Amino acid sequence: AQRNAVFLDARSGLVVAGGDAAVGAAVVRQGRVMLSIIGPVANPAAGTAAAPRDTSVRAVDNGISLRLPVGTSVLEVTAALRAVDAQPSDVAAILLALRQVGALPVEVVVR
């Protein structure tokens, strides 16, 4: 098996392995879902605190805007996407987009 990868089941949209990877700042849109991962990350060495765990969901222009904080795990992202009824193909596309824009530091393997 590949290390440093997120494995996603294509039919269910569930993370099979690697769900603890943290997601960095990004905004991606797929279908009717716009996902925003925003806010600074805590850096105790620099004396900065983490942003509050700002999570929100709201309806916008025939879709859903989902906001999660930087550092949210892949597992939490996929759970939030499923909670707004995102299709498994959309969940996969969003994770691949997060990887493409550099917000996900691990490979995404959809099986």
Describe the fold and architecture:
This protein has 111 residues and is an alpha/beta fold. The protein is built from 2 helices and 7 strands. It has a 4-stranded mixed sheet, with helices on one face. A 3-stranded mixed sheet has the order 2-1-7, with helices on one face. A hairpin with a 2-residue loop joins β5 (56-60) and β6 (63-69). The longest helix is centred in the C-terminal third of the chain and has 13 residues, at 88-100.
Secondary-structure element pattern, one letter each: EEEEEEHHE
Q: Helical region count?
A: 2
Mean pLDDT: 85
Structural category is alpha/beta
Total strand count, please?
7
**Sheet with most strands: strand arrangement:** 3-4-6-5
Proportion of strand residues: 25-35%
Radius of gyration, whole Å: 14 Å
Helix content: 10-25%
- Low-pLDDT residue intervals, each spanning 5 or more residues: none
Quick one: biggest sheet?
A: 4 strands, mixed
> Quick one: overall form?
globular
* Terminus-to-terminus distance: 13 Å
Topology:
Layout: E1 5-8, E2 15-17, E3 26-30, E4 33-38, E5 56-60, E6 63-69, H1 74-83, H2 88-100, E7 107-110
Parallel strand pairs: 1-7, 4-6
Antiparallel strand pairs: 1-2, 3-4, 5-6
